[in-house]
Structure formats: structure tokens, C-alpha cells
Design a protein that fits this description.
single chain; alpha/beta; seven-stranded mixed β-sheet; 7 helices; globular
Length: about 290
């Protein structure tokens, strides 16, 4: 693994941040957020990384730090991905994330690479390219969208984090791709604000509209949803005949989600994705959930 530093145009001081910090995040990316996302057995990172570059991406201090990696996805060429350096990054000077119910503890989660996202991206690499409309929800760094877009699929990425669009645009440029359509997609009521004030759902990005033939989401069942808001959100944006893919690393909320999806007319097929550690790849436990109607 090699490392280099991109100069910060706004500061003459760059911390000495080498690739030695990465394996700790890979081993336990939920380390700082286990209280907010109480999953007892977090799945480790399994991407192959090279050419790591650490550089501030913001325009004013304190900002946040990023790294740049070559990410190997089975079935397609490597992607160059800019992500947050680690889960200690935070930058919300205007309170945009807070207004959407995104706390300082959960702010960095959008900008990290997750094992379930890699598996969804690998699955998208095998999907025949047709005229179907595809939507990725809760996309984060949007690996699946980048893979599908590079292959010529008609895909839209969506998330509710105010920084997701900027990272998506940066990563499309890094991979010499045309911009990917992006929409603001927020289901239900976001987490309570840290200061106790009402959550505001306004966002600068265009809101999500329209119907899609395939909707995909990785690791989106991370919190209880007794009201079925995610299933209703999917129903609102799924075509009359549609397929839904969800990869879930055993977060414990599948049973309730199955029931909510059944209520809006979807049949479910579940496939175990458990994999033992081998050849340098870390172990993984999870399920591929396929819903059709």
C-alpha cells in the first residue's frame, strides 16, 4: 500500500496521517457508534485498498479529512473512492445535518465504506444492463450506483445526508464518469435532534420522485421501524411490478421489515451470505433479501 498527501490549499499544516490508521477502522468501523447502532457483532471491512491519500476536502478549518483508495469490486474494474478518513470526522458548521436529524455521532457514517455495500456493488456488477430504472436508497458513498453507472445502467442515487451529493460528484470525477443523478431521499422521521428541537427535512438537493423498477439498499435496516416508514417509502417509489434488493448484516430488524413489505404487496426471498475469512478477506455474516411484486 502506498501513501501520498494532497496539499491543503487552505492550510500549510497537514497532520501526519498514514495508512496505519486504516486497519483499525476496518476491523471495527462501528466502534464509535455502537451505542447509536447497537449491533453486537459488527462486520469488518473487506475491500482491497491501495494508493491511500489523505487530504482535507473542506474549504475552511476545522473541516474533515478524507482518504482516497482503489476499491476492488468483483466483476468490474477497480473504483477510485474518496471517503472520510475515519469515523471521528465531523463538519456541520451551518447545522444542515442537525436540521435533518443527523447527530454528530452518526454524521460520518455516510462517508465510510461498509462490507454490505461491497456485496451489493458486486451484485450490481452481474445485473444485465437494460432500460429499467434503478434507485439506490441510503446510498452513502454509492458504490452500487458507481458500478451500475459505469456499466451503462440507468441509476439514481439517493440519501438524506447533506454531504452525500458532494462525495458522489467527487467520486464520479475521480473515475472519469459523467454525473450520476442524485436525489434527497428521507424516509419517516429522522433521529431526534441533539438539542431537542423539531427535525427539519428541508434539503438543498432535489427531492426524490418517480417510480423505479429496481430499488437497492445495503445496511439500511440499522434501526427499529415499528411504523413501517421504510417499507412505505419503498412502496411510494416502486413501480407496480418491481424488485427490491436489501443486503442486511444481521442487524436484527429483518422480521419487522418483512411484515411491513408484505403489507404493501411484496413477496420475499432470503439468502444467507455468511462467509468465513479466507485468502485475506474478512468474515461476513448477513442476508440478501429480495422482494418482488
Amino acid at each position: 500500500m502506498t501513501s501520498s498527501v494532497i496539499p491543503d490549499l487552505t492550510s500549510s499544516v497537514i497532520p501526519d496521517l498514514t495508512s496505519s490508521v486504516i486497519p483499525d477502522l476496518i476491523r471495527d468501523p462501528w466502534r464509535r457508534h455502537k451505542k447509536a447502532y447497537s449491533h453486537p457483532n459488527p462486520a469488518p471491512h473487506e475491500f482491497r485498498q491501495c494508493a491511500v491519500t489523505n487530504a482535507p476536502l473542506n474549504t475552511s478549518p476545522p473541516g474533515y479529512l478524507t482518504k482516497q483508495e482503489n476499491i476492488a469490486i468483483t466483476g468490474v474494474d477497480d473504483l477510485i473512492i474518496r471517503s472520510l478518513l475515519d469515523n471521528n470526522q465531523f463538519h456541520d458548521p451551518l447545522g444542515e445535518a442537525l436540521n435533518l436529524g443527523i447527530s454528530s455521532a452518526t454524521w460520518p457514517l455516510f462517508g465510510l465504506l461498509w462490507p454490505s455495500g461491497a456485496r451489493m456493488a458486486a451484485r450490481m456488477a452481474l445485473r444485465p444492463v437494460t432500460a429499467e430504472r434503478i434507485l439506490e436508497i441510503g446510498c452513502g458513498l454509492a458504490l452500487s450506483s458507481l458500478v451500475a453507472h459505469r456499466r451503462g445502467a440507468n441509476i439514481t442515487a439517493s440519501d438524506c445526508h447533506p454531504m452525500t451529493h458532494a462525495f458522489l460528484d467527487a467520486n464520479t470525477r475521480l473515475n472519469d464518469l459523467q454525473p450520476i443523478p442524485y436525489r434527497h431521499g428521507l424516509w419517516g422521521t429522522a433521529a431526534a435532534r441533539e438539542d431537542g428541537l423539531p427535525v427539519l427535512t428541508q434539503a438543498h438537493d432535489t427531492p426524490l420522485t418517480g417510480l423505479y423498477d429496481l430499488i437497492v439498499g445495503s445496511d439500511i435496516l440499522y434501526e427499529r421501524d415499528d411504523e413501517g416508514t421504510l417499507a412505505r417509502f419503498i412502496d411510494e417509489h416502486a413501480a407496480v411490478s418491481a424488485e427490491i434488493w436489501v443486503i442486511d448484516p444481521n442487524r436484527g430488524n429483518r422480521a419487522a421489515f418483512h411484515k411491513h413489505m408484505a403489507r404493501v404487496g411484496f413477496a420475499m426471498h432470503e439468502k444467507v451470505l455468511d462467509q468465513a475469512a479466507h485468502g485475506g478477506a474478512n468474515a461476513y455474516k448477513g442476508r440478501m433479501l429480495t422482494y418482488t411484486r
